[in-house]
Design goal:
By secondary structure, this protein is mainly β. It contains 1 helix and 32 strands. It is elongated and about 70 Å long. About 55% of the residues are buried. Strands 1, 3, 8, 9, 10, 13, 16 and 18 form an 8-stranded antiparallel β-sheet that branches.
């Protein structure tokens, strides 16, 4: 399906909102680090965070405290997508590994970890909650002994967020984190950080917790790289326990949050078994070698008017982008976008073709439709760093393409005129499910890299434009009546 469901719904009831998240890319060896100024409460603490994974079936270290030996306390998404909460000091082991799998890259999840070895009940000394529900089914369930201290809040150890246990980028966290709250000396339940809304969905709520001397609250509201109140790792608990930043930049602060989830490219379509196909930067960057399938969005558009941008990288002179039907499978490599019955829709050096695929391709400044150049007009010579625009009107089934602030063929999305094509033309029709996915590709089987911006850009924006609802961060003006592809807009217009 186009819009994957499995984690917490990312739409609140109009009350409490989370404004920002931190996007972490494992290949960048990006992480936060902090060493407590003094020991906190080593036998009682609570860690709450909201998580949106972008890769699955791999080790994703989210929180690590480790010395140079085997002593460690770690929180990691396991290779089988279970959640692992482990303490090991060479002689004493406490470990929980869930049977539940966290493998939806389109969803935000709320996870809470509690260490309380002062508890007389062995099964309550190490606890875990996912989306408000305490986990009780574990593949591994080993309880720490009474009074056993952890390494968390120990001033002798460096604490990492996003860094792997092996201290290399191979196991670093890949995804988004929001509202990281550590409460020193407290054993809280998930209900202290979230609640069930009127639709029966777990959502964040305003915190009323006590942080303790070594606690911290990371809201990711700042963009600097220093370990102070103006940095990405700024602690807003009042304790001043700020985190140092490594290989993170201002563009890694996003508005993709548990209370307004933005679209990304879908890491499950096509499958990662395809060679030379990678997604990165929070699944907003698409890079392929030769003969690889298209990248498609994880949210579909059935109604409403939508706008997004795509930045061209340093490779491929013949870019391709547009929309595909939500029945797209994406398992076909080579020079085609194919539907579920394996019918080839797009051939080499052509892009807009019959069926439920429509898009723009530039080859020597020619625009192709059905295999031949069309009189839609042409862009200037395409260069690395160019930003392309797409406006899709699903109410009137029209689409427009633009480049660097200019709409192709004197297009006017706001006025509804001079569109590239109408999706009900004989050559363009919608599938029965009546929804479309944003797509990027290379029409001639060339190497390609794209960065797609649904309002949560992975690249620097110099202008800063939002839609009429105030959502999104775009380089160019969003046409009046068109909106960023996010859950709040989908709830209103989709």
């Amino acid at each position: 399906m186009a819009f994957l469901i499995g984690g917490a719904n990312t739409l609140d009831d109009g009350g409490y909102t989370i404004d920002n998240s931190l996007r972490m890319n494992d290949a960048d060896n990006a992480y936060l680090s902090f060493t407590p100024g003094s020991d906190g409460d080593l036998d009682k603490w609570t860690l709450s965070m909201w998580v949106k994974r972008t890769t699955i079936s791999t080790y994703d270290y989210t929180f690590t405290v480790k010395d140079d030996s085997d002593n460690n306390t770690v929180i990691v998404f396991y290779a089988d997508d279970g959640v692992r909460f482990e303490h090991y000091d060479g002689s004493q082991l406490g470990m929980l590994i869930t049977n539940k799998k966290i493998r939806d890259p389109s969803a935000w999840y709320h996870v809470v970890f509690v260490w309380d070895t002062s508890n007389a009940t062995a099964g309550n000394r190490q606890r875990m909650y996912i989306n408000g529900v305490e986990e009780t089914s574990f593949a591994t369930d080993t309880n720490p002994s009474s009074g056993r201290v952890s390494f968390v809040s120990d001033a002798s150890y460096v604490h990492w967020i996003g860094r792997g246990q092996t201290q290399t980028e191979a196991n670093n966290f890949d995804g988004y984190l929001a509202e990281v709250a550590f409460c020193d000396g407290q054993a809280y339940a998930a209900s202290d950080f979230g609640e069930t809304n009127d639709n029966g969905v777990w959502v964040p709520k305003k915190l009323g917790v006590t942080f303790g001397s070594q606690g911290y609250y990371l809201e990711f509201k700042e963009t600097g790289t220093s370990a102070n109140a103006s940095g990405i790792g700024a602690d807003t608990s009042g304790n001043g326990n700020h985190w140092a930043v490594t290989n993170l930049a201002a563009t890694d602060i996003t508005t993709d949050t548990p209370t307004n989830n933005f679209a990304t490219l879908n890491s499950l379509v096509p499958p990662f078994s395809q060679t030379n196909y990678t997604l990165s930067e929070g699944n907003c960057k698409y890079v392929t070698g030769l003969n690889q399938p298209a990248g498609v969005s994880n949210m579909a558009m059935a109604n409403g008017k939508w706008y997004w941008e795509i930045k061209k990288g340093s490779t491929v002179d013949n870019p391709a982008f547009g929309v595909v039907g939500s029945g797209y499978v994406g398992t076909f490599g080579g020079n085609s976008w194919a539907d579920a019955d394996s019918t080839v829709i797009q051939a080499k050096s052509t892009y807009i073709e019959n069926g439920d695929r429509i898009g723009y391709s530039n080859n020597g400044s020619d625009v192709y439709k059905n295999g031949s150049a069309q009189s839609y007009g042409s862009f200037d010579a395409i260069a690395s760093g160019d930003i392309f625009m797409v406006a899709l009107d699903m109410d009137n089934l029209k689409i427009w393409f633009g480049n660097n602030g200019t709409w192709l063929g004197s297009g006017d999305p706001a006025g509804g005129s001079n569109h590239v094509a109408t999706l009900t033309d004989s050559s363009f029709y919608l599938r029965e499910e009546g929804s479309q996915l944003a797509a990027v590709d290379s029409p001639a089987g060339e190497n390609v890299d794209w960065e797609i911006n649904f309002g949560n850009p992975s690249f620097a924006i110099s202008s800063g434009n939002s839609d009429d609802n105030g959502y999104g961060n775009f380089e160019y003006d969003v046409p009046t009546g068109f909106y960023a592809l996010c859950t709040k807009n989908l709830a209103e217009f989709g």
